[in-house]
Structure formats: C-alpha cells, structure tokens
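Ops channel
N.P.: pipeline sanity check, posting one input/output pair.
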C-alpha cells in the first residue's frame, strides 16, 4: 500500500500526540485542538516543515504556560507517614455553585497548582470534588489519584461507633473514590439523625462516645479506606482523653485558626503530640455567614501588606504557614485563588510577627448551638474546655 504525503503527515502528528500523551499529559488538553488543525495541513500541505515548526512552538508555549501558572506547594509529612500539601482548598460555601460549575472551578484550582481539597459530608461538595478528581485524570492534569490529597469529614449525626464505616462508604460512593487521604471526626459532638446543627431542638444533642467513635475511625484506616485519620474542633483536653485509648494517633486536628484566633494553647500541645494542625477560616471566613471581618479588615495586616506589596489575604495565610500550620482557604474566584497560592517565596519579619501578636483574640465561630441546659454540653466553655 502506498502512503501519500498527507497520510505521512497525519502519522507524524499521531506519533507526536501519543508521545505527549505519555510524556507531557498535563498540556495535552491545551493543545488537542491544534492536532486536528495541523494534521490536515492548514497551508494546503505545501509547507510541511513550517507547519511542524509552528506546531512544536505551540507545544512549548503551552508547556511554559502550564509551568508558569502552576505554583508549587510545599508538602509536610504527617505522623501516619503520608505527605500532605501545606495549603488546602476549602470546599465549603454558604451557597455552593451547581455541581458542574463547581467541578470546573476545582479543576481550574488543580491547573494552577492546588493539590489538597477539603470537603465534608455536610458541605454538599463531595460530589463535585470527586468529579474534579475524575476530570483531572481524564484530561491528564494528573496521572495518578495519589497526586491529590482529598479530605472529608464524618458528620455529627454519624459520630457513633456503628455509624462511622457506613458514613465513610457513603462518602466514597458520592465521590466515586476508592479511598480518602484523610478522614476527620468533624466535631466532638453527636446530634440526632436529621437534626440541623444551627437549629437544634431540646434533646437533639446526644452524648458523644469519643473512644468508640475513634475505634471505628481506626478500623476505617486499617481497611485502607482512608490513608490518615484525624480530628476537627477538638480541644487539648479532648485530645488527651482520646489518646488514652487510641492505637493510631490522630494525624491532624483541623481547627479555626487565623490572626484573630491564634490558637495559642492548642498549637504547642498538638506540636508536642506530633499532631499536625490545619487552620480553617484562615481569612476569618470573610463575607461568610459564620465569619467576621477581623482578619481582612485588620489595620495591622493592612499596613504589613502595603509595606510588602502583598495582599492582606497573603499576609494572613503566610502568618499561619509560618506557625507550622496548614491553612485551608476557600476561594472560588480565579484571581483570588491564584493570589492565595503566592505565599511560599517570601517571609514576614520578626517585627511584623510581633505586630500580629497584638491583634485582639476572639474565636470567630463558637458553636453555641450545641449548648443546651439539659443536654450533654452545658456551656461553650465545656465544649472548648475553657479555651475560648
Ligand atoms: N472543620 C470545620 O469545622 C470547618 C469549619 C469551617 C470551614 N472549614 C473548611 O475551611 C475552609 C475555609 O474556611 P472558610 O471558608 O470558613 O473561610 P476563609 O477561607 O477564611 O474565607 C473564605 C471567604 O474569603 C473570601 N476570599 C478568599 N480569598 C480571598 C482573597 N484573596 N481576598 C478577599 N477575599 C477572599 C472568599 O470569597 P471568594 O470565594 O469569593 O473568593 C470567601 O468568602 C472551608 O471552605 C472548609 O473547607 C472547616
């Protein structure tokens, strides 16, 4: 069979396509349309060398663009031996975009360098996170699932020994994943099935069995359904209690942390116990129902940001990172999510750190709704063991 000139050209492009698919899959989706265009000879097949040259130039530009837009996030090693990117993308919002839109937002986050995603059974974003993982694999943004770090959380209607494994299985099913990187007990609290955390009726807060719930978390880890297990919103006292019987120590305690709630008691305690801290609401949940403007409108942060030509959010996030804590920051806006990544190649000075220590301290989210006169939690002091 005689191969014509145009067929030869198509074979060359198919060869390049396969090569890129194997060697540089991250740029494949950017340049796919060019393959079709160039394989059929846009210049009437007269100037094949020129066509190939232009095509190769486009490939190298696409590669440069991907590298330029992708920020590298440092990784930390957890006490479970697994690595975690030191900054995570929060996936909770007062009003979530529809699943497909949120999926595209999260894929874009991966394109610019986010690798760590924080969701929870109660956020309503598990499905979109799972779809974004599938999409990233499909388009070659990542080659393996293990390039991402996915966290989800046990909701408080299920914080009971017998309900943990079914809840994790449901989460995995919703996300279409075989395993999580991290599964957290969302709160040291249990409420009745169907109850609303923000509007709890008398009797809907139930006693929380800390040891039974943790034992079931350990079983999930042993089954390989999650690589690491951890806590969220646990005080020093509650962690101590949990450690009395734990056979696997929690890898993480995810708590509110920002310049206006610096976790001065919890941080040294967790460090001593080798439990890594992740900070939620690192910007004080600016503009959100549960948040405040204490971070984003702090005059101290404003002055530091101006003097360093950084944004307030960058100063707020950098400060958390310098405390050895991993911020979990939410932005679904392209510019702001890019901005929030640019915190790893500069530092705050000693003087700036001293100024940040002057910021008045107040827990933004106290979770008063769990407190009931006749329930198991009788005061916010009891919930936080005095650390408020
Ligand atoms: N474990 C827990 O109990 C718990 C509790 C709360 C939150 N979390 C996790 O932590 C994540 C983050 O916390 P959060 O959402 O409460 O608060 P946050 O990250 O402190 O603040 C999010 C708010 O700040 C805005 N924002 C983000 N970047 C910005 C920037 N560069 N400049 C100006 N505004 C900016 C966002 O709006 P745009 O999206 O419009 O940019 C959003 O309104 C959550 O998504 C969730 O995954 C966990």
């Amino acid at each position: 069979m005689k191969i014509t000139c145009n067929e030869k050209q198509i074979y060359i492009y198919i060869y390049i396509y396969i090569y890129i698919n194997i060697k540089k899959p991250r740029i494949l989706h950017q340049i796919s349309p060019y393959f079709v265009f160039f394989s059929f000879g846009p210049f009437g097949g007269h100037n094949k060398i020129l066509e190939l040259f232009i095509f190769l130039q486009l490939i190298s530009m696409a590669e440069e663009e991907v590298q330029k837009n992708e920020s590298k996030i440092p990784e930390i090693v957890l006490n479970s031996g697994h690595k975690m990117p030191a900054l995570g993308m929060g996936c909770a919002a007062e009003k979530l975009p529809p699943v497909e839109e949120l999926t595209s937002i999260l894929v874009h986050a991966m394109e610019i360098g986010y690798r760590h995603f924080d969701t929870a059974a109660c956020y309503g974003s598990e499905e979109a996170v799972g779809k974004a993982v599938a999409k990233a694999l499909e388009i070659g943004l990542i080659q393996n699932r293990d390039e991402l770090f996915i966290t989800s959380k046990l909701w408080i209607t299920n914080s009971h020994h017998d309900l943990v494994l079914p809840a994790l299985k449901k989460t995995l099913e919703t996300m279409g994943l075989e395993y999580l990187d991290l599964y957290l007990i969302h709160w040291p609290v249990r409420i009745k099935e169907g109850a609303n955390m923000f509007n709890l009726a008398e009797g809907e807060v139930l006693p929380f069995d800390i040891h039974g719930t943790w034992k079931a978390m350990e079983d999930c880890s042993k089954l390989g359904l999650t690589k690491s297990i951890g806590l969220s919103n646990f005080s020093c006292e509650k962690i101590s209690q949990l450690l009395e019987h734990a056979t696997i120590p929690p890898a993480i305690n995810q708590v509110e942390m920002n310049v206006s709630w610096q976790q001065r008691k919890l941080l040294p305690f967790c460090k001593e116990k080798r439990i890594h801290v992740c900070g939620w609401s690192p910007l004080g949940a600016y503009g959100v129902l549960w948040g405040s403007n204490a971070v984003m409108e702090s005059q101290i942060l404003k002055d530091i940001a101006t003097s360093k030509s950084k944004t307030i959010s960058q100063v707020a996030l950098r400060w958390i990172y310098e405390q050895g804590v991993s911020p979990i920051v939410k932005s679904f806006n392209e510019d702001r999510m890019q901005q929030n990544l640019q915190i790893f190649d500069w530092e705050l000075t000693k003087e700036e750190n001293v100024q940040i220590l002057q910021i008045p301290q107040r827990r933004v989210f106290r979770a008063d709704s769990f407190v009931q006169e006749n329930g198991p939690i009788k005061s916010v002091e009891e919930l936080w063991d005095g650390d408020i």
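N.P.: looks fine end to end. The radius of gyration is 24 Å.
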